[in-house]
Structures are given as C-alpha cells and as structure tokens.
Amino acid sequence: MPRRSSESTPVSRPRETNEPRARQRAAIRPVLWRVHFLGGLLAAPILFAMAITGILYAWNPQLEHMLHRQALSATAEGPARPLSEQISSARETRPELRLSSVTPAAPATPAGEETTAVTLVPETAEQNRFEKPKDAVTVYVDPASAEVTGSITESNRPDEWLRNLHSNFRIGKFAEPISELAASWLLVSIVTGLVLWWPRHNRTLARNFLFRKPGRPRWRSLHGLVGVAAAAGLVLLIVTGLTWTTYAGSWVDVARSQFDSDSPEVSTVLHPTTDSGEAGRSLVDESGTAGVTTAGADRVATAAREAGLNGVVVLEPPDSPGHAWKAEEDDSRWPVNPTALAVNGDTGEIVDRVEWAEYPPLAKATSLGIDFHQAQLFGLATQLLLTALAVALLVLIIAGYRVWLLRRPSGSLGAPPRLGSVVRNAPLPILFGFAPLMVLLPLLGITLLGYLAAERAVRAIRTSGK
C-alpha cells in the first residue's frame, strides 16, 4: 500500500500545477484569436495580390528573355570583338547619353546565348547601384560582330515594372507602406496562428487533414497544415522584405550605423603619384564627348578577368578625373563571393579590392536577404522555393476565408470577442511581447491602436444610443 501511495502522488501534482497554465492559456487565447482574425481581415486581400505579383517577379529573368529574346541573344560566331568597340557601337545609337556601366558577355558564352549590355544615362543622372535613373537605356551588342541587337528602356524593363507592381501596385512610392503594413500583419498572424494551433493540434498534420470530415473541419485542418508547414519560410520571406521598407527597414539602418556594419566600398581615388592629366584624358573618347577610351575599357576588363572575376562582371567608368574604374562581380551562386575592384583605366593596375570576407555579419545578412527576397540568390532553386511559399500563402488565405464563411452566423461578422475587453484581461507577458513588436513594426502599432480607438468609439456610440 505505501508503494501505491508513493506512486499515485506524482499523478495528482501535475494536475494542480497544470491548472494555472490552463487558465493562463484560456486568458491568452481570446487575445491571440482576435489579433489573428484582425490580421487576416486587414492584410489578406493585399497579401493575395502580393503573392501573385511575387510569383511573377520571381520568374522575371525568364519573362524578360521571352519578351526581349532578340536583344538578349547573340547570333554571330567567332571570337569577341574588343569591348571598347562594342561600347562604341552602343553609344552611337544614343550619342546624347553618357556611359554608366558595361556588363560584358562571359568569354566562354557560346554564340546565341548572351550579349554585352551597355547602360547609358543622361549627363545629369547620378550613379545609383540600386536604382537606374529615369530615361536610362541599356543597349545590347553582339560580342562577336559588335553590332547592336536591340535596347531596353530601364523604366519599361519587366524587372522594374514587376517590382513596382509588387511593392506599390504601380500607384507610386507613396503606396509602398500598404505592402509593409500587410507584411507586418502577416508576421503577427503567423505567430498567433502557431500559438493557437499548437496546444490542441500537435498531432500528425497530414493525418488530421485526411481524416477530417468535409466542410469546415477539413478547411480548418488545411489552414493549419499549410500554415505550420510554410511558417518558417514565410517568416524568412517577410523579414527579408521588411528590411528595406520605409519604416520597419529604418531599424536596420539604425543597427548598421550603431554597429558599424555598412557594406565596404572600394576606393576609386587614384594614388597621388598618378598623372591626373592622363587620368583625365581617359574620360574623353575620339568624338570629344564624355565617355571612355577604347584602351581603358579593354584594360579594365582584362584586369578583372585576370584577378579572378569569372562570373557576371559589371564595369563602371570613373565619373571624374583622378578616379579609377570599378569592376564588381555580381555573384549569387554558392558559395557567394562577390568581389569589387578599383582598376586604373590607363595602366590596368588594381588599386583597391574588397572581398566578401571583409563584409560585417549584418551587412552580409542584409545583402543575402535582399537577394533571397528577389529570387536572385542561388538561381532556380530559390525561384522554386519562393513560388512554393507564395502558393502556400494563397492557399492559407483561401482556406482561412472559407473557414470564416462556414463559421460565420447569418447576418453577423462572426468575429471573436472585442479586442479592447480581452486586452484589459490579458496576461502581462503577452502585452509586453506585443510592445516591442509594435515599436519594430510601426505601421502595425499604428493600425492596432487605431483599431482599438475605433472599437471603443463604436461601443460608446452604441451605448449612448440605448
């Protein structure tokens, strides 16, 4: 008997210790449920459109090649003509523009696959590596014949068109906070959805879905199945997108400045012993207009290849006398190893070099995150992954709306209890958890506080009318 008594003691204690936890979960659930519902109500329509435009943007390289096949395809056979000759052919088509950058066709590229891209911009345009200036034009040249195959105005390029469609629905930059707001609420909806799902449905997801009865249980199980399976990928996609938004992204800038984590840049200033007059002459071509000498471009391209830049290399000419060319490898393969060089166009001497290893950790994370979000990192594998995540988001939204419609009583919104009342009774830990999230995601905080104020106002009006 004593033995049975000692064995039975541990059975009753967990029940006693679990009761406070059960009460705490019961107090938290209404808050999480309301916030989860509110996030879907506010963000789902916007997110549905962003998922579709995101799929299109992920496959932009293939779309661009379909639309501009003639300009992007080389047909002539034989060795490549000097790069300077290719640049001259491109500039003859738009002599009023100045040279901004050159992306030579890879030396090993067979005929019919790749052309040299020569980007020309207005004389007054400023250099910006992240955004091409207005009226910029990229002229494509067959490397073997040095003949122009076509041109694309940068503002009409599928990449630029789809990026604006995805970020601001082509309304204008003032509309970009709309997508930031939707992404912020999606992040909250994922976190609250996981917490709501876990205590009650932590069994085999696929089994739960397959053996559910048709109707609302099946749709709710599908919503949970897809949500849990895609949660990690969607969170990564959201975070990498928020890092370059207007408001949430400003915290990344603050962190990078505080921890001295800006991306290093090569110094293009030539050594003081360099003949400044000779360097200045390298900015004037045979026609006397601002540009680049034939010898300078060829020397820079050769120096870049000899220095080990064997991928896609972008060459930028100096914008003033006494400065060097910049050669940067646009490397998104594994392992990622972008390298930037400063090359003296008169001598081919490398005057500065920046390797990927020199980037601070935060700068690396930001750079990789942006490339991942734009489906540029690792090529086809990332395109397929992002497409799968976007499709999962579409299924989540459809299933969520279906669950709501099947649950909603006729003539009622079918919403959870009012948020104001449950917030007043919510445990302090959950309130403290939301506070920093509202600071890091300002648009989330503003809309949540605005909703609470509107809810309180509506309740006051209804009370006064009785």
From TrEMBL:
Basic and acidic residues bias (residue ranges): 13-22
Ranges of Low complexity composition bias in the record: 102-115
UniProt keyword Phosphoprotein present: no
Pfam families assigned: PepSY_TM (PF03929)
Keyword Membrane on entry: yes
Region (Disordered): 1-23, 76-115, 263-288
Composition bias, Polar residues: 263-276
PANTHER family in alphabetical order: IRON-REGULATED INNER MEMBRANE PROTEIN-RELATED, PEPSY DOMAIN-CONTAINING PROTEIN
Protein name: Uncharacterized iron-regulated membrane protein
